[in-house]
């Protein structure tokens, strides 16, 4: 037993651990959708700002539409990131808190980074044209801050999986300045997330472009640009995904290679869905009149499978140290009922807000 792993919290949780696991996956999926649109949309925005030549009208349309969406996506990403973070702390608090302490200052830095990035996104959205060449800097700061926050989270969530490092890191330097840069899992995990965000944002661009009614040529160009981005980045991300698999600790990797029916099935489903995504995107790319809904639903299913794969990997890394069944439970029925009502009300409100946002006329 690792002496640096804190004992489970003696305070009971108000519901069985599987319920919190399900809520962790559900809320993280919602957060992931907003985060992908934010980070990936920012990358597409920077690419359009940096592109010279070509269809100038297309680039300007992409810049304006993504710029107006970024502040809303920023708010959604932060808001919907709170719930999965709380559920993660509830289930894996001893691991997550310890890794957060080891990288204390970089972890604290996520708050000012979010504030600076938020202001930069607003500056680009509402003063972008007046900034001239400075618009690229404002957009770059917003995207850079989001990427750095994501990198900090990747450091934390990989460091929490390796308790064997904690004692060595702390006694080498207890000042809270540790990142997990030497971890083989860190870089493919972060790149897999970042590239997936760009692909999802490309699909979102194509979906939003279908709302363009006044200019059919512009609509087709936007859809084509979004699908081209989705296809190219997804091909690269499939290769990064295999790098991610090879970077897993050997015993954990064996779980996905036949050692566990659950983990192996998820890997097989993930690979199959990746091929389906490429096929569906290519079909729409070659026949623009086809519906994007099958591709959108397949992408959502792929994100859900990836979340479950991350959970299976986490369980493999923490096997023998984190047993969720041992967490004491004292069911609080009234509080759970209130939570359920508020959760359903919150979901309904978010769906209404998104529908209103999508129904707003493009500017």
Structure description:
This protein is an all-alpha fold and 363 residues long. The protein has a single domain (17-337), classed as Formate dehydrogenase/DMSO reductase fold. It has 12 helices and no strands. The termini are far apart. The mean pLDDT is 90.
Please render the helix and strand layout as text.
Layout: H1 17-50, H2 56-102, H3 104-108, H4 110-131, H5 134-159, H6 166-172, H7 186-209, H8 216-247, H9 250-259, H10 261-286, H11 293-317, H12 333-359
What is shown here, in short?
The protein has 363 residues and is mainly alpha-helical. The protein has helices at residues 17-50, 56-102, 104-108, 110-131, 134-159, 166-172, 186-209, 216-247, 250-259, 261-286, 293-317, 333-359.
List the keywords:
363 residues, mainly alpha, Formate dehydrogenase/DMSO reductase fold, 12 helices, globular
Within the CATH hierarchy, at the fold level, what is the topology?
Answer: Formate dehydrogenase/DMSO reductase fold
Gyration radius, in Å: 21 Å
* Count of individual beta strands: 0
Oligomer: single chain
Domain count: the total is 1
Strand content: under 5%
**Can you identify the CATH class?**
Mainly Alpha
SSE arrangement, N to C? HHHHHHHHHHHH
Secondary-structure-based class equals: mainly alpha
Helical fraction: over 70%
Straight-line distance between termini: 60 Å
Give the helix tally.
Answer: 12
Mean of residue pLDDT values: 90
